[in-house]
Design brief:
Oligomer: single chain
Strand content: 5-15%
CATH class of the largest domain: Mainly Alpha
Distance between the termini: 38 Å
Number of strands: 10
CATH topology of the largest domain: Dehydroquinate synthase-like, alpha domain
Low-confidence stretches: none
Mean pLDDT: 97
Bound molecules: 5,6-dihydroxy-NADP, zinc ion
Length: about 400
């Protein structure tokens, strides 16, 4: 087990009806005036926004609103939010939504105390410093941003989607009420489940070998969320299954699944190859849901790289799918690994996720554009399990059509 630092400072308030506790929990953080950030309207339609606002006003907490955060959030709205937060002198940013809303809120929170343009953090021109406190009411389990040290923002003018990391903007508070997710369309539920499984796999297939405690957590989380997601698909208001999906989403990305697998205590475990490849797709085509892109890219990446360390893929096949090779021949190993990868893809498709990139309304001609910005973002080689050249990336993209 390698050395690691595990920082998960978020207070999780998890339960049925707990959205109504938002006001009391936010007030307990000392907030008097908050910037309430939300998306394109689901929280209005579902009544969640009204419940959040009532509970805040019951505690005397004032609100300033920023709405209209789109999926794959854009830096323009972050800049608007920074101005609003400064003008109204808010003391906390409250995100009500999913990864897109939370990431927009995070960027506002670290943009407010910074004198320059917030994109400087994403371009590498500025180092992470002070940050306003953040709280979250989670409405979709997926990105894990409610506990993660990541913030991913698009810049349409530059055709870039970039992430920054920092423990300083991990939310102080996450209100997690599984009933809020009953209204999620199956496609979004499925994309979220895919994303969380990918967050686990990115760490599981890092450069570090077996770490039994962490590997067991990873395999158990994947098995649990696969079971729960199947129940939710057939019974969307099943509370226990929704709750399981929600909690797995958090544990998949609060770095628990990387403990002891980190190459250095200061660096997140894993090579994040599938995320690197997918982010280029949703950067150029914001209509592509992150998790749906991953449903295609993760199996394609696995098929391309498993030869680099078949033993690790056999651990996965056994730990997640109870599959072992019938003997030790190369052929039997290949069969077992291929079966596991196929099973994972079958599962994604069974939830309604796409099988090919063509299903996502992108074309093979787009690959060239993705590779240009991939090179800008990741350089000539990236990843850990099997460092990928741009030619590898091209082959993975092309194999996924
Ligand atoms: O915008 P509204 O109307 O609210 O609708 C949203 C949105 O269209 C809808 N939705 C959310 N909760 C709902 C609901 N609809 C009905 N009922 C509810 N309860 O769902 C849609 C998707 O929301 P979004 O926030 O975009 O989803 P997700 O949580 O998957 O976030 C995706 C973003 O997070 C980034 C992705 O790249 C993408 O930009 N990621 C952030 C990470 C992080 N910060 O740690 C890690 C991830 O790997 C990921 O990259
Ligand atoms: Zn993700």
């Amino acid at each position: 087990m390698n050395d690691f630092v595990f920082c998960s400072p978020t207070r999780f308030v998890f339960g049925r009806g707990f959205v109504d506790r938002t006001g009391a929990e936010v007030a307990a953080l000392g907030a008097k005036r908050v910037l309430l950030v939300y998306g394109g309207g689901s929280v209005r339609r579902t009544g969640t926004l009204q419940r959040v606002m009532s509970s805040l006003s019951a505690e005397g907490v004032e609100t300033v609103e920023l709405d209209g955060v789109r999926p794959n959030p854009e830096v323009g709205l972050v800049r608007t939010g920074i101005e609003l937060a400064r003008t109204h002198d808010v003391d906390l940013i409250l995100a009500v939504g999913g990864g897109s809303v939370i990431d927009c809120a995070k960027a506002i929170a670290f943009g407010v105390p910074y004198d320059g343009d917030v994109w400087d953090f994403f371009s590498g021109a500025a180092k992470m410093g002070a940050c306003l406190p953040l709280a979250v009411v989670l409405t979709i389990p997926a990105a894990g941003s409610e506990a993660s040290a990541s913030c991913v923002i698009s810049n349409d003018a530059l055709s870039l989607k970039k992430g920054v990391s920092g423990d300083v903007f991990r939310p102080r508070l996450a209100i997690m009420d599984p009933e809020l997710t009953f209204t999620l369309p199956q496609y979004q539920t499925a994309a979220g489940v895919t994303d969380m499984i990918c967050h686990i796999c990115e760490r599981y297939f890092g450069a570090v070998g077996a770490v039994p405690v962490t590997d067991g957590i990873c395999e158990s989380l994947i098995r649990s969320v696969m079971d729960a997601a199947t129940v939710v698909r057939d019974d969307p208001t099943n509370y226990d299954a929704r709750a399981a999906v929600m909690w797995v989403g958090t544990l998949a990305h609060n770095d628990l699944c990387g403990c002891g697998r980190d190459r250095s205590p200061e660096r997140r475990a894993g090579g994040w190859e599938s995320h690197g490849l997918e982010h280029e797709i949703s950067a150029h085509s914001p209509q592509v849901t992150h998790g749906a892109g991953l449903a295609v890219i993760l199996p394609a990446w696995m098929r391309h790289v498993w030869h680099a360390n078949p033993g690790r893929f056999l651990d996965f096949a056994k730990g997640v799918f109870d599959v072992e090779p019938v003997d030790e021949t190369d052929e039997a190993v290949a069969d077992a690994v291929t079966f596991a990868i196929d099973e994972l893809q079958r599962f994604f498709v069974s939830l309604g996720m796409p099988r090919t990139l063509g299903d996502l309304d992108v074309t093979p001609e787009d690959v060239r554009t993705w590779l240009v910005t991939l090179r800008q973002n990741k350089g000539e080689r990236f990843g850990e399990f099997m460092p990928l050249t741009l030619e590898d990336a091209r082959a993975i993209y092309e194999s996924a059509f």
